[in-house]
Amino acid sequence: MMMMVMMMHSTLLLLPILAAGNPIEPRACTTVSPTFVRSVDILTPAYIPVADGTTAVYKDSHAPDPKDRYYGHIEDTVVEFSGIPSNAQDCEFQLFFEKGFHDIIAYYEPVKIDVWNVDQSAPSNSSTISWNNAPKPVGLFGVLEDLELPRGVNLRGYPAYDHDVLRNVNSSNCKETMTFRVSISSSLEKGGVQFRQRDQKVGPVGGWRMVYNCS
User: Fold this and answer.
1) Are residues 141 and 116 in contact, defined by beta-carbon separation less than 8 angstroms?
2) What is the DSSP pairing of strand 28-32 with strand 74-82?
3) Among 88, 126, 144, 214, which residue is least crowded by beta carbons within 10 Å?
């Protein structure tokens, strides 16, 4: 079944971009969560893709080798926002982790992520997506440089963010459906990070989001 995360329309005050340094004035915006988050792996079925709603991006430093089926491992994630209203303006794609969020694993540091525009929308059924039929990159939309990772500890002892972290990917004109492909940056020899999309129902909030109609 396709992971359909209910669109969360809410007006909120955007927090300062703590990870980027200089604070900004709070803005009132409409915020929506993705309706599709699914990873695709070049080595499937050797690697089982993670569950719907989890971003997983990975690049192995080894060249593909028929003697080792795990060499050459590359994993990308397709992220889609659908149902954006026709009156939406200035869509800004963001990555946000609320204080206390801990459902994130980094395999290597630094974490640098490329976000790509793609040639088509995600399939209606997430179980049918694969490396071969997934939306293909057609142009770089934005880059997340040196993603900040959690250094604090939550009540369960897992590393958790001790402050809110907001990273802007880029902004563009809004469309009813906006689809992206996320990968480890081509400038890195190897890299990997994985995190689960979490909304206010299961908080702390974390993952991708789109904001628009800011004032």
Assistant:
1) yes
2) unpaired
3) 214
